[in-house]
Specification:
- The chain has 963 residues and is α/β, with parallel strands linked by helices.
- The protein has four domains: 120 residues, no CATH class; 365 residues, Rossmann fold (3-Layer(aba) Sandwich); 243 residues, 3-Layer(aba) Sandwich (Dimethylsulfoxide Reductase, domain 2), CATH 3.40.228; 133 residues, Barwin-like endoglucanases (Beta Barrel), CATH 2.40.40.20.
- It contains 35 helices and 34 strands.
- An eight-stranded mixed sheet has the order 7-6-23-22-21-8-9-20.
- α5 packs across α28.
Length: 963
């Protein structure tokens, strides 16, 4: 037998295609594509190792040089955080494998093993596919033309730094914007971005509301959105409502908890328009018409209240339902009504024991000897005379009369007997929980849908006990990174101590007034946010992105509005409720997102935003839609090529890390390294050019000749050793049990020991005990700590002027407006099983698991009525625009609904037009309301969204060309 000897290059050239076995997939490198990619700055094929025969590809796939720990920084959202072994051979990551060594919380609940999904299982393939960027690129043609010139990092950074210096001095730092996207981390990426923003006084877009993850109903009701329980806590539930989510698609690593809870005896119910992949694994599917969930929930509440099934003790203690409201003004009875120096946030209940009004405590929820009335009408002497008052609960009972199951059935499409059965089941459950995820935030009237969900659970006392609650914005992360973003240039321990000293006065004042840790943290965060370093991405695109005609079209679709959106927005800005960007953008950095794929109406950004920009810079590991239109594209290290810390969620309460399993390909660099090099170049160029001084947005003089020194904490944590920053962060974290970076690097993760003091985690409001599941909000129910609302209770009555004007003082149902025009079909969406966001949407292995191209799901009835066959090309249109796609006819979709799942790149559609081009995303003015204690914008919450769910469309077959 003749032995064949091949070098890596001759193997590729001779075969045309080389294959490296990578776990479940094969790495396929086309020589012509590889050569073209190398010319454009992507991965060269020369990085492959030598093999002497084709059999070696298979014989050696289970042999490796090193094994590192890794995870994935893409915004997996609720399933966030999985620990993987990363196998490296010849400097190449060959495959990954789930670690599956998570400790069991206790013997009575399932453990977290294994964690992972098919996307994580092929990330090693993603690292080496033809889309990978490995060299800095400069645009050589018109934006979007696809012509590039390879440049060095020094050339790119010099040009970028010079332009930044010019803009800082001429237009000011308010003209430089950063989009952090969903790729933000709790380590080098996050600290680098926020520290750069802080030192230069530039602006970061707050995208959470823009993408529709802002949970406005949770914010209105609870004063916060960041709370959720751990996945193993669901095992204590006897009723689990999947209501506004699809966890079998979007929480693959967590889904087993739901199924195991069902085996354990819990009844699992799915409330959804379509028979989705989660619904088929439940005990009961409750079909509901698109956008009518508030009506359904109010019908549940009607049954619970009318049949006296509510938990009166919980209602009296934890909610505002006993609080007294004046019948003349429809406002809460306040201390200022009774005394000239009375507080605006002093409220009253009527005590059945003493038969008189009694002030509600601001410092504790404990009722002691007070028994607040829930019914009745009482007379109170105010400074201006006698007024009648009633408890909110009495008003709620009257309000719910219009939502009897028989009245709601035609709206929701849900039978009255089903509504009554489920309402009684919720009321009688030992512990009920709702899995809602971030779906209702994306509806125009999503605030009401969420308020109603909270109402249903609160009426029955399903918060703050094992297996209960509503899983809202799930966030739990290391708590040193936010402070590190604004700390002085000292060693990390001293830097964070200095931040603490700075806040000490405010902390003591908060304690003096009886405010909780939660309320103090939120208060300080709102103050910082009001300085304008973060702005609403929605309002930025509304003003500067050319989307104003779309996002401002609310009155066109919403029959409840009597004035235009801009009238509400002008009032909100004038009163200081909302902030809009005031400086036209000149430089825009994309450092973790993809606005030209993500944003509703992204096609208008190309025509309106981009011409405003002197410079568009994208830092990414792949050629995204935004990168295609950028002036400079800088290659980011892949996740297995850099050390960093992921942010996490309570569902899997572990801080996961990535480690440098393999060296960054070619000239790719980690995000922390990018920020260090950028600010070093700004510092050097400012000195060389003699332009070291500029004025910040407040008019204060700032200097550029030490910004790199400040960024790196006095050159202690530099680009030379990116792990030094992570080591320092773990030294000062308060909520990872003193674990060191070296320990976490070895193990891949560490369990959280507390919720910490971060403004996006403290809202979990619970103690974390090592051998217990995490149950959110026990500080309120067990410790009687007030909720961070104006009433210090879960608040269902909002006596804000705009809520009165729009008829939403109590939770209500409003029909989904005909956004997009008078068309028969409502388009919905969601995250997919194969690509939560765009990071894997053009991944060959993931495309092989589906139809390989964008599809729109239609019901059989709607397809037949339009003569559309499965797989046919169709055109979807409304008053805003149109796009072409292929049909997927499904028996699981109800008539009147069509579904396009998220994350497809524009390049995957004919003409580069996705479903986003016909979504106007009108702002609901109720989400602009402020000046009401907890209705204020801050990180991740309190700003308007761009709704997409329920957009009206029509679908028609595209005639085929005759042969």
């Amino acid at each position: 037998m003749t032995t064949i000897t091949l070098t890596r290059r001759s193997f590729l050239l001779g075969a045309g295609v080389g294959t490296l076995s990578l776990s479940l997939v094969c790495l396929r490198l086309d020589v012509s594509a590889a050569a073209a990619a190398e010319t454009a700055g992507a991965s060269p094929a020369a990085a492959l190792p030598d093999y002497h025969a084709w059999e070696d590809l298979y014989r050696q796939q289970w042999v490796w040089d090193t094994v590192a720990k890794g995870t994935h920084h893409v915004n997996c959202w609720y399933q966030r955080g999985c620990n993987w072994h990363v196998y490296v051979k010849d400097g190449i990551v060959w495959r990954e494998e789930q670690v599956a060594r998570y400790p069991q919380t206790n013997a009575s609940v399932p453990d977290f093993n294994p964690r992972g999904c098919q996307k994580g299982a092929c990330y090693s393939h993603r690292m080496y596919d033809p889309t990978r960027l490995t060299y800095p690129l400069k645009r050589a043609g018109a934006r979007g033309e696809g012509r590039w010139q390879r440049v060095t990092w020094d050339e790119a950074l010099t040009a970028i730094a010079d332009r930044m210096i010019d803009v800082l001095r001429a237009q000011g730092p308010g003209a430089i914007y950063w989009d952090m996207g969903g790729g933000n981390t709790s380590g080098g990426h996050g600290v680098g971005l926020f520290r750069t923003r802080h030192l230069l006084d530039t602006i970061v877009l707050n995208l959470n509301s823009e993408v529709g993850d802002h949970h406005p109903g949770a914010s209105v009701t609870c004063g916060k959105i960041d709370f959720a329980s751990s996945g193993d806590d669901w095992f204590y539930s006897d009723l689990i409502l999947i209501w506004g989510g699809n966890p079998l698609y979007t929480q693959i690593p967590n889904a087993h908890f739901l199924l195991e809870a069902r085996y354990h005896g819990a009844e699992v119910v799915c409330i959804a328009p379509d028979l989705n992949p989660s619904a088929i694994h439940t005990d009961l599917w409750v079909p509901v018409n698109v956008g009518t969930d508030a009506a359904l929930g109010l019908a549940f509440a009607h049954v619970i209240v009318s049949e006296n099934l509510y938990d009166a003790t919980f209602v009296r203690e934890q909610t505002d339902l006993p609080f007294l409201v004046r019948t003349d003004t429809q406002r809460f009875l306040r201390a200022s009504d009774l005394e000239s120096d009375g507080a605006e946030d002093g409220f009253y209940v009527y005590d059945l024991t003493t038969q008189r009004i009694h002030p509600a405590s601001r410092t504790t929820l404990a009722l002691d000897a007070v028994t607040p009335a829930l019914e009745g009408e009482f007379s109170v002497t105010t400074r201006k005379g006698q007024v009648a008052v009633t408890p909110v609960f009495a008003r709620l009972r009257r309000h719910l009369q219009q939502y009897a199951p028989e009245a709601v059935a035609p709206i929701t499409g849900t039978a009255p007997e089903v509504i009554r059965r489920l309402a009684r089941q919720i009321a009688s459950a030992r512990a009920a929980t709702i899995m809602s995820q971030s779906n209702f935030s994306k509806f125009y009237h999503g605030v009401e849908m969420e308020r109603v969900q909270f109402l249903v659970l609160a009426l029955c006392g399903h918060f703050g006990k094992k297996g209960s609650g509503l899983n809202a914005f799930a966030s739990l992360t290391t708590d040193a990174n936010e402070a590190a973003g604004v700390a002085p240039a000292l060693p990390m321990k001293l830097a964070l101590a200095a931040v603490g000293v700075e806040k000490a006065g405010a902390w003591m004042q908060a304690k003096w007034h009886g405010d909780t840790n939660e309320m103090f943290v939120y208060g300080e965060t709102r103050k910082e946010y009001a300085k304008g370093g973060f702005v609403s991405a929605t309002l930025f695109f509304h003003r500067y992105g050319g989307l104003g005609a779309l996002t401002g079209s609310s009155r066109r679709w919403d029959p409840h509005l009597t004035r235009d959106l801009d009238a509400y927005l002008d009032e909100a800005v004038e009163k200081g409720w909302q902030q809009t960007p005031t400086t036209e953008p000149k430089i825009f950095f994309e450092v973790g997102g993809n606005i030209l794929q993500r944003v509703r109406g992204y096609d208008r950004l190309i025509g309106e935003l981009l011409p405003r920009l002197d410079l568009l810079v994208t830092v990414d590991s792949r050629m995204s839609a935004t990168a295609r239109y950028s002036d400079y594209v800088l290659p980011a290290a892949a996740w297995y090529e850099r050390a960093d810390i992921t942010w996490a969620t309570p569902h899997a309460p572990f801080s996961h890390v990535t480690t440098t399993a393999a060296a960054p390909r070619a000239e790719a660099k980690a995000d922390w390294v990018f920020h260090c090099l950028l600010l070093k170049k700004i510092q050097d160029r400012a000195v060389v050019r003699g332009h070291t001084v500029y004025r910040d947005r407040g008019g204060t003089e700032r200097r550029l000749d030490h910004v790199y020194d400040d960024l790196t904490f006095g050159r202690r944590y530099t680009e030379e050793d990116p792990e030094a920053l992570l080591r320092a962060i773990f030294e000062v974290n308060s909520n990872t049990g003193g674990a060191s970076w070296d320990t976490v690097k070895r193990d891949g993760c560490v369990r959280f020991t507390s919720v910490g003091m971060s403004p996006v985690t403290i809202g979990n409001a619970t103690d974390i005990v090592s051998d217990e599941t995490i149950t959110a909000c026990t500080w309120h129910t067990a410790k009687k700590m007030p909720w961070p609302t104006v009433t210090r209770r879960m608040q269902f009555y909002i006596d804000h002027d705009w809520y009165l004007e729009l008829g939403e003082v109590l939770p209500v149902h409003k029909d989904n407006p005909r956004i997009g025009g008078n068309y028969p079909l409502q388009m919905t969406g969601g995250h997919t099983r194969w690509s939560i966001h765009a990071s894997w949407r053009d991944s060959a292995p993931m495309l092989r698991l589906q139809r390989g191209r964008p599809v729109i799901y239609l019901s059989q009835a709607d397809a037949a009525a339009r003569g559309i066959a499965d797989g046919a090309a169709v055109r979807v249109h409304n008053d805003i625009g149109s796009f072409d796609i292929h049909a997927k006819v499904s028996a699981a979709v109800r008539p009147g609904q069509v579904i396009v799942y998220h994350a497809w790149e524009p390049s995957q559609f004919p003409g580069g037009r996705t479903h986003q081009v016909l979504i106007p995303g009108p702002i609901n003015p109720i989400q602009l309301a402020g000046g009401y204690y907890h209705l204020q914008p801050t990180m991740v919450v309190g700003e308007p969204g761009m709704p997409d769910r329920g957009t009206r469309v029509e679908v028609e077959a595209i005639p085929t060309e005759p042969r």
